[in-house]
Specification:
Helix content: under 10%
Largest sheet: 6 strands, antiparallel
Radius of gyration: 12 Å
Number of strands: 6
Order of helices and strands: EEEEEEH
Strand order of the largest sheet: 1-2-6-5-4-3
Distance between the termini: 34 Å
Length: 90
């Protein structure tokens, strides 16, 4: 098995505040879904009334507020296709 390089942490408080580290890019988001890429692959956050309250591309940190119902990890080797924030900050 190939070792994946990078670090990623997720802290969920009271199912209403999610703090993520190791975020490379946000692909897309709306009130029900946030699709992002971490250093360890794709992550989809599902819920209701989701809001990105803080994003630091330099530090790889992202905070999401709302009614969080699921965290779904995709492939570990999924790489950002330079989503909305990547294009905006390029």
């Amino acid at each position: 098995m190939t070792e994946i390089q990078g670090r990623h942490n997720a802290i969920l408080e009271d199912r209403s505040k999610l703090m993520l580290t190791g975020v490379n890019d946000v692909e897309r988001f709306d009130e029900n879904t946030v699709v992002l890429y971490t250093q360890l692959g794709e992550l989809t956050v599902k819920g209701e009334k989701l809001h990105i309250s803080e994003l630091s591309v330099e530090n790889g940190e992202l905070n999401i507020d709302g009614e969080i119902s699921a965290l779904v990890y995709g492939q570990r080797d999924a790489v950002s296709r330079l989503g909305f924030f990547g294009k905006l900050l390029r």
